Amino acid sequence: MTAHQQNITLQDAIWDGSVPLDIRLSPSECRVYDQADPYLIQYPRLSYLPLLLPRLHAFFSSFLIDPNVRSHEGWFSYENVPLKWHYPVGLLYDLFSGASPAQASNSDRDEHSPPRRQPSSLPWQLTLHFTDWPGDQLVQPDAEGKVLHDAFINSVKEADFLRNGTAKGIMSLSKDDSTQLWTAVQEHKRSDFDPIFQKLLYAQGAPLRHIPLKVYLPSSPSASEPSTGHLRIVQSLVTPFVQGTKEQQTIGTALHTLLPTLFPSRRTPILAKPVLHGAVVPMSAQVEGLLREAAYLDGWLYVGLVMIG
Fold first, then answer.
1. Prediction pTM value
2. Max Cα separation, the chain?
3. Helix 287-294 crosses helix 251-258 at what angle (to 10 degrees)?
4. DSSP characters over 145-164
5. 134, 130, 124, 137: which is closest to 27 by C-alpha?
6. In contact, 41 and 21? CB cutoff 8 Å
7. How far is CA 139 from CA 29, 46, 116, 178, 196, in A?
8. In the prediction, which pLDDT does 109 show?
9. How many CB atoms lie within 10 A of CB 187?
10. pLDDT digits 0-9 by tens, 231-254
11. CA nearest 180: which of 211, 153, 159?
12. Adjacent-strand bridge partners of 305
């Protein structure tokens, strides 16, 4: 299998990746004593929960105590933790479900075969709310969807700036291309998404300056952070090459620089493992290659950490 074929296979797997969801209306908002039936769906990992709200509102409308609530007022929680609606569903699941990530075992599978996910509690059960918006933790979207759209585009701009030192790529897109990009995200339509995204990745025709990378790790609550969720986001300037050398930057070298206490070794995960799209990432994986083949739809690499032991 050639490198190009491997990349296509990886991209196919990422776009085809999904999470089975079991969405239940909050009992406090349901007029039926024994609760409404759950809404079950196999939902793309790359997509966003708010895009489901019109369908969910229609599904649960006859069960709502307050029939006047509107679809954009909906929000989701997992085990009483409000979920950030601007995070992709796959990232949310990896961060909050506690499920073991998929990982390869060299003794029982071919080098290029897909990783096997360990058993976990699926479908992922979420609670849907239409009242008591947690304003101290979440920004509320609007009825027209502009807030969700702007949040996505701003994230694309930030990634574009980190890659190229300028956001001209996204800013210079035509109105039709910008519309096509967002519509492709909403409809999870890769054939429309890829041509526009490739323009952004290779807009300058020059080497990448930095890799848009965010690392999420469990964190103890503090006065400055909410007492729920307990996630710390680590972000710094990550270059395609190890600083001062011609050595390609890998996930291992990047994490060793960002979090040397958790990653004392650049080659071997000792205290924690990096997870991307539900799978453990080899420490030797080059970050530039991951960015081009495994970025989320906004152009970022979102890496979660799973503690070992």
1. 0.88
2. 65
3. 110
4. SHHHHHHHHHHHHHHHHHHH
5. 130
6. yes
7. 21, 21, 36, 24, 28
8. 37
9. 12
10. 899 999 999 999 889 899 999 999
11. 153
12. 274
